[in-house]
Amino acid sequence: MCTLEKRGNLFILTLTGDSDDDHRLNPALLATILSSLREAKSQATRGSVLITTSQGKFFSNGFDLGWAQSAGSRPESAKRLHQMVQSFQPIVAELISLPMPTIAVVQGHAAAAGFALALCHDYVLMRSDKGVLYMSEVDLGLPLPEYFGVLFRAKVGSVSARRDVLLGGMKIRGAEAVRLGIVDGAHEGEEEVKEAGMRLGEELGNRKLDGGVYGEMRKGLYPELCGVLGLQVGKPVLPTL
């Protein structure tokens, strides 16, 4: 599942499990993540920062396709997959509108919806020695949800990088992800990447940013994404002269 810990201004959201847990996004985990984000939002103050990470060798291996297929019939499996797609969308919306800076510390593999989860954050750090980013939908023959495509257009600036990731199913390691502008830094080892995430979180927290203004500015950067997510982009409040 996941835990939410508050350390000063930092909210640490951790996907938990044993070392072999690939943190598949099933309905129970999706509900817990959403609840944790809303809890952080309710407790946010000036200078708050969210850091999302996980335990073990995976950040997240995406939707729980095993749970979907266990329904038996193909129509029922499709319904379960659609349920997870719908349940993930409000998580994306919460992260895009959250009134604080957000950091994903990707210490292991992030595939499909797990990759998208990392990409929803303002900053993404990953390991250079282990772990890959991978959109498996093209290899599995699964259609890409509309909001996934819009998320990648909003967050990955290079057209060729989006092509290679979404249409080519390219598996991207840390140094290459930095070169492509998908992540902000690659660090050797699990402890190193987590320490880098904490340092960045503390630096952002020390700026004591106004979370409400920050969240509205973030939404303003991604109007198309906000549109498909049902988020209203507010008008800026002009200072009185």
Automatic annotation (TrEMBL):
A matching Pfam family: ECH_1
Main enzyme class: isomerase
EC number(s) per entry: 5.3.3.8
The keyword Cytoplasm belongs to this UniProt entry's keyword annotation: no
Pathway as given in its UniProt record: Lipid metabolism; fatty acid beta-oxidation
Gene Ontology terms for molecular function: delta(3)-delta(2)-enoyl-CoA isomerase activity
Reactions listed under catalytic activity: a (3Z)-enoyl-CoA = a 4-saturated (2E)-enoyl-CoA; a (3E)-enoyl-CoA = a 4-saturated (2E)-enoyl-CoA
Protein name, as recorded: Delta(3)-Delta(2)-enoyl-CoA isomerase
Lineage, top ranks: Eukaryota, Viridiplantae, Streptophyta, Embryophyta, Tracheophyta
